[in-house]
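Batch manifest line 501
LIGAND: calcium ion
JOB: complex structure
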Amino acid sequence: MKFCIMKLLIIFILTLPLTAAPDFYVNQAATGNNDGSSWENAFTTLTDALSQAISSQGGTEIWVASGTYYPDEGQSSSNNDEFSEFPLQSNTTLLGGFIGNETSANERNPIIHPTILSGDLEQNDLDPNSNDLPENLTHIQGTNSRTLISIGSGAENIHLDGFFLTSARTNLALFRASATVTNCHILGGFKAGISLTNSSTLNISNSTITHCASRGIFVATESVFNADCVTMSDTENPIISSSSDATVNLTRTCFKRINIAPNGLPSAIALFSNASLNIRSSLFLETPDQSSPAPVIRMDTDKPCLISNTTFYGHDRTAIANTHSTPGTLTITNTIIWDTNDFSPQVSHPSPTISHTLIENENLPGLNNLDGTLSTPNQIFTDPTNNDFRLHPDSPALDAGSNTFVTEHLDLAKKLRISGTVDLGAFEGSFTASSLPSLTIQNLGSSILLTLSPPPTSNLILEESINLHAWASRLAITPNQSIYSIPIENSSPRFFRLSTP
Ligand SMILES: [Ca+2]
Ligand SMILES: [Ca+2]
Ligand SMILES: [Ca+2]
Ligand SMILES: [Ca+2]
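JOB STATUS: finished
ARTIFACT:
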């Protein structure tokens, strides 16, 4: 009985909404007492709120209204000091995305009301579309912050939710610390998006990492990077570890356009010095041409690597390689590797275990692998040209996997992972695309031009996603109209697809 009451209590606590009121409010537009006690009297800088935070149990929750905040602002800050940063201590919860009148955290919308933490201290970065965010790294100008958010020795129980973190050398740095990041967009890190060192742990979900140079995520010295529903795009080295015993666990993670500049190590994931890797229901898309193509996933490790239900598409290079003298086990299952420009082999390892997998132009023996010499891309995927990697109704990958390896409940689209027998690749189930016109997408900077060919003959829906996981209706497509223009509100990566109403 005691156990049941405890269980009910735990369920009750877990289903409570987010805290009714925070300890401090921040709104750069507030004109009240600047003491953080209400939206009206909100602190106008985040640094002033953080200087009041306590690290003891119970901690501090801070709500931050939409606007742009710099770490060199506030009473104890030094203007344009490149070492200024937002330091977070234990038991801190930061929530962004408010208009500045909400009474519940559930009312906020971080995309419509962006809360931007920016390292552009001198406020001189190029910003042709006036959104306080860089659309590429050439927009970064002058002396920006070295570190935007720093979480130092021993800090834990830190939660960051609903922010844009941008324009610092490193946007988020953990040193012997742990944190949870949700609903954040990390961009314009001109050295790194995120850096984890000295046994740090980061759990990140429903977030994007884009336009970072040198490294998107740097995972060093026994640190752990756990990502779920994270999209990494236009970033030079999305995940890299050069120090010992890092752990990288990726579920429902999407890599798109892997390199922005051909220097450093041009791989989506480069893990060295005994790192281990686990990838599930993820998608790796196109790596622009390199003079010396490195594998999409490049490892030099004696630790195990598991890749399950993952789709690789559009790279003219080896997909996965481990060059260690005594390489760890490599297990690949329920996976599709396609549009490889005939680059062979796709897996480089002395004794990989590959099962229930489809690789272009390869017909691997045994273990229920599919014959990759028989199909064409349009027989496998719905619309690969427009990044729609749901399976075609005729796809040999449908129901061709093994449920044995599946641990995730949902696929990349957050639909049920196993329908009957699990399918190969990142998405479960098929989508009938034969009646849809083809969609051409032109990014014009502040707007996107969509062209449908041939003109649609029935009502359709244009769906939009900033991360390939969560899709929302953006536009009703009517019969016979073939050209549409839609504005872009911020610089997050955007994906579009057509669906039937
Ligand atoms: Ca600047
Ligand atoms: Ca300044
Ligand atoms: Ca901009
Ligand atoms: Ca299935």
